[in-house]
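PROTEIN DESIGN WORKSHEET
SECTION A - STRUCTURE
LENGTH: 188
TOKENS:
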């Protein structure tokens, strides 16, 4: 009895794969269509999620009081520090001028606010004197604020600091918010 030779398989994917791919893409489109027509009730979703969380009991949150005890190269090289607030919110970058001006000025002069012409040394002295006056005025203003807000400072509700030409008033949370709440005190 002669053996019947089987036909060799055609190159490429089998014929059933195209049908299967069409079926899967239609099924995906069906679920996308269902999702697009659905409405999400956030309150009901949170209730269901909460009841599921309590039912299974595996979502325990453990509050960590200490920092992790593992060692890392960063922990070995750098010590943790407390960030200190700065008075100025700008970052200054120092650059070096690589080209020199082609002209040299012999005796530069400047104009004051009065319109008088003064040389650079006198101008520097005038500027330094004005800066000292402004710093003194700022210090006096900070003292006035401390006198006016003495009761709040003694209670620990606010802090007043002066640095150069700025006065910083920090409002502490114990005076403005009750403990454990995000709502502002009505008498504040």
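SECTION B - SEQUENCE
RESIDUE ASSIGNMENT:
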């Amino acid at each position: 009895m002669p053996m019947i030779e089987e036909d060799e398989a055609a190159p490429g994917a089998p014929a059933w794969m195209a049908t299967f791919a069409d079926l899967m893409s239609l099924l995906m489109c069906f679920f996308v269509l269902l999702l697009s027509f659905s409405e999400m009730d956030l309150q009901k979703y949170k209730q269901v999620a909460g009841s599921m969380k309590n039912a299974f009991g595996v979502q325990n949150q453990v509050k960590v009081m200490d920092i992790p005890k593992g060692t890392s190269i960063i922990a070995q090289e750098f010590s943790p520090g407390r960030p200190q607030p700065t008075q100025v919110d700008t970052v200054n970058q120092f650059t070096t001028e690589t080209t020199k001006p082609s002209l040299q000025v012999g005796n530069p002069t400047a104009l004051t606010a009065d319109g008088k012409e003064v040389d650079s040394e006198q101008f520097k002295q005038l500027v330094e004197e004005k800066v000292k006056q402004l710093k003194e005025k700022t210090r006096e203003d900070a003292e006035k604020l401390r006198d006016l807000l003495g009761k709040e400072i003694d209670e620990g509700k606010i802090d007043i600091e002066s640095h150069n030409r700025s006065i910083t008033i920090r409002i502490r949370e114990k005076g403005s918010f009750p403990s454990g709440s995000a709502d502002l005190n009505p008498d504040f």
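SECTION C - NOTES
The two ends are 105 Å apart (CA to CA).
Helices lie at 15-37, 42-56, 73-77, 120-148, 150-154, 173-176.
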